Amino acid sequence: xxxxxxxxxxxxxxxxxxxxxxxxxxxxxxxxxxxxxxxxxxxxxxxxxxxxxxxxxxxxxxxxxxxxxxxxxxxxxxxxxxxxxxxxxxxxxxxxxxxxxxxxxxxxxxxxxxxxxxxxxxxxxxxxxxxxxxxxxxxxxxxxxxxxxxxxxxxxxxxxxxxxxxxxxxxxxxxxxxxxxxxxxxxxxxxxxxxxxxxxxxxxxxxxxxxxxxxxxxxxxxxxxxxxxxxxxxxxxxxxxxxxxxxxxxxxxxxxxxxxxxxxxxxxxxxxxxxxxxxxxxxxxxxxxxxxxxxxxxxxxxxxxxxxxxxxxxxxxxxxxxxxxxxxxxxxxxxxxxxxxxxxxxxxxxxxxxxxxxxxxxxxxxxxxxxxxxxxxxxxxxxxxxxxxxxxxxxxxxxxxxxxxxxxxxxxxxxxxxxxxxxxxxxxxxxxxxxxxxxxxxxxxxxxxxxxxxxxxxxxxxxxxxxxxxxxxxxxxxxxxxxxxxxxxxxxxxxxxxxxxxxxxxxxxxxxxxxxxxxxxxxxxxxxxxxxxxxxxxxxxxxxxxxxxxxxxxxxxxxxxxxxxxxxxxxxxxxxxxxxxxxxxxxxxxxxxxxxxxxxxxxxxxxxxxxxxxxxxxxxxxxxxxxxxxxxxxxxxxxxxxxxxxxxxxxxxxxxxxxxxxxxxxxxxxxxxxx
Length: 675
Fold this sequence. Notes:
Largest sheet: 4 strands, parallel
Distance between the termini: 30 Å
Strand order of the largest sheet: 5-4-3-6
Number of helices: 18
CATH class of the largest domain: Mainly Alpha
Shape: globular
Helix content: 25-40%
Number of domains: 3
C-alpha cells in the first residue's frame, strides 16, 4: 500500500481555518438558529476580507473568504465562500436585488447605503454588529518543491528510439560524427513494451551526450546486433545484459555469462523471472567454468544459430591468478595463457562477490538505495553517493545550497587523495617496497580521521543525502583539513625519494603494459588510466558539477600509456586535489546543509542519467522512474569494469611477472565491478 504523502512544514495553508455562520433559513418570517458551517474548500480567488457589515440586505459572497461576524434573520445564500461573521438584520431582500460588496481589505457598509433607497425596506431595531480585530497576517511560507519541475530536468534522457535492424548503422553513424566514447550501456525490461538496451554515447571533444534506445526482437528469445566491432568495451557490457536479461547479441564473439554462475537458471533482472524457483539446488561449492565461447547468428528463417569455440587449445599452458591472489585486490580470477613467460591471453572471470545491488534497489525506496553505494567502491564512497544523490535531485528539480556543493567537492577530493594513497601503498607492497607502503598508510590515516570526525565512519561514510548532507561539517573540519594539506605536500616528496626514483621500479614500469589512446577510448578506460594514454576525459573539466567550475586546476594528462605514466598520474592528481581543496576550504558559504524533503520521495516518471569523476574514472547513474517511490531501473556505470576488460590487451606480449605491476597501475576495485 502506497504511503500517504506529507507536506513540509513550510507549506502554506490557503484554506480558511475556521468558519462560523449564523443565518436564518431561506423561508420568510422563519427564524434560523445559529449554526457552525463546515470547513469549505479553498475558493479559486483567494481573497481575505475583514469587513464590518450591518445591513438589511446582504449580497452573496462569490469566491471569497470573508472574516466578519454576521447575524441576520434572513440571509441570502452564499456561493462558494467561507464566512466568519456575525450579521445583525431582521430580514434580507433576495440576493438578486443586493448590490455587490467592494473587494477591499476593509469595508464598512451601513444600513442606509446597502441597497438603493427606492428598493429598501424599513429597518427594524436591530443592534449593529461589532467587528472583530483584524487578525495578524501569517508570514509568507516558502513554497514546497513542485512534484515535477515545470521545465525538463537537465539530466533527463531523451533517447532516440530506433528499430533493432537499424541499431548498428545508427550507432556507427554517431561514432563517425564524433561520439566516439560508449560511456554507458543499460539493459531494461519495460514490461509489455519489451526488453531492450539504452546506449549512452559521449562526444570525444565536447563530452555532449546522446542516447539511443532499441527494443530487442522476439520477446521469447530476444536478440540485438552486437556493437563489439565499434567499441571493445561492448564485449563486457553486452555480456552483462545477456546475463541479467537474456538478450542475445548477434555475432558477439563470447556470449557467456559474466557475473552469475554458468549453471544459473534464468535471467534475474527480468520482471517476470523467479530465480528462487529454479536455483534451489545450486550448491555453494566449486563453480563450473566454461571453456567454450558462444556465438549466436541469425538464420534465414529468423531462428538463432548457436556455435561454440574453445577459449583455449588443448596444448595451451594456462595458469590461474586468483581468485584469492593478494595482487588481484579482491576476489578476481584471471585465467592466463602463457608462452614460456610471455602472456598471450587473459580470460577474466568475475562475479565471486556479486551482490545484485541493482536488482535489490528495485525493491527499495530512494533513501534506502543510498546505503548500497558506499559498498561498491569502498575507495569512492563519497563520489558514488554524490552521483546517485545528484541524479535524483536533478530529476526532482531540487537545488541544493552552495554550502552543500562546496562541501561535496571538498569531500570528493579528500576521497580521491585517499584512493590514490591506497593505490600507491598497495603497488609498493606488491613490488616489495614495504617502507613506501607504510608511508602511504601513514598519510591516508589523516584523511580517515577527518572523515570519522564529521561522518562517523572511515570507509562506509553515509554522508551525502538526497537534498544535501546528513549533517554539517565538524567544527574542527577546516582546521584539520588545512593541517593535512601542509603535511601531505611535505610528505609526497618522500614518495619520489623512496620509490618514484627507484631504478628497479622504473625498469619494471616504463614501457610495460602500454595502452594506446585509441584502446583507452574503445575500452572506456576513464580516470587516471585513460589520461595516462593521452585521453582527456576528466568530467570535472568537460562536464563541471558541484563547485568544480569555481576552482582552477590542471587536468593531468600524459602520453606514454605505460605503467609508469599511470603511476605518475595518480601522484600528480594528489597535488591537484590539494590545490582544489585549498581554494575552497576557507570559502565555504553559509547556508543550509540540507533541504527539507518530503518523507516519501518520489521521482517524476522518466529516464535520467548523471555522472561524476570518481577516483578511478567516470561513475555514471542511469535511473528510470515510473513516478513512485521505488526506482524502476537503477544502473551504475562501474568505473572498474572497463579497467578489467582492458587487462587482456594491456598484458599481451608482456612477462608474467609484469602482470602484477600492470594490474596495480590500472587500479581496479573488485566490489565496484561485481556490484
